Amino acid sequence: MTDSSSILWIQSIWLEKAKIWIDDELARQGIERIGTVEQPHIRHWSTVLKLPTNVGYIYFKAVMSELVYEASLTQVLSHWYPEFMPQVLAVDGKLGWLLMKDGGMRLRESLKTEDDIRHWQSILPIYAQVQRESTKRIDELLRIGVPNHRLTVLPTRFKELLANTEVLNLDRPGGISLAEYQRLQDYTALVTNLCDRLAAYGVPESIHHGDLHDGNVFIHDGRYLLFDWGDSSIAHPFFTLHSTYRNLTNRFGLEKTSCWFELLTECYLNSWVEYETQEKLAQVFHLVQRLSPIASALRLLPVLSSMDEVTRKKYDEWMPSLLREFLNLNN
């Protein structure tokens, strides 16, 4: 799947430049490329090259300039938490290029039946551990360019989102209607209120993956590895479950009352009991659910804003869907 803005990824000049960098970095580590380069992933925001080498497959990822921090973020996370992250071979932080070893099998291929959701009962405590330990490293994460979506700035980010009427597809078929837009404008004070209420609890802000679903978790030698940090921000840690639960709902047709959500929420919140009682953590999670669609919408904003009108039409439903979810949750 290509679009007018992702043509860069298939230009021969760009591909040749990438291959030269790849071969130089592999040579530094005594690795030799031995076959034809494949390009299994081409999107507006990123591309992936699959490289056969004498030590197995190596993967190269390049991202758009708005997400360039992903390369440096993946590198530091792999250094801090090597047992949970991709094995990084090289990065170019300015270009947003990343070279990694094979991560194994995607979790998606292991989720055959609803009972396989139990994998998440092992994954969420691992992810929460990364978040808890990263609370001490917020300044470093911000310095490498991870977006700041903390509670103190979230209301301002929400107003900036509403000002981008092109991304909202305002008053167009399938987009945000004028009536919905007015309601969103009226809810700016509510967003501030929810942020203030969340800030009053003791749960610290940390790294928020932004897109933690079964396509971004890999299983390698019995370990779970957390991939694809390009949608990350510094934010309330509990925002993450929004994407995870949306994915599970779409994959298995789960109802909101499914016991799986109760089990996984309890599993995740148990990792945060050093900060608040279980009762208060449940209150925090309830408040977070009301704001989570906004956090998800903000991660899409730089990607959608960078698209031309023709390209953006392919993703017209993304932003309106999240904002309508926010309106419904706060009705």
TrEMBL record:
Query: Could you list the residue ranges that cross the membrane?
Result: none
Q: Which InterPro entries match?
A: Aminoglycoside_PTrfase, Kinase-like_dom_sf
The protein depicted here goes by the name Phosphotransferase
Which part of the chain is the Aminoglycoside phosphotransferase domain? Answer: 180-250
Domain of life per record: Bacteria
The record's Gene3D superfamilies line, in alphabetical order, gives: 3.90.1200.10
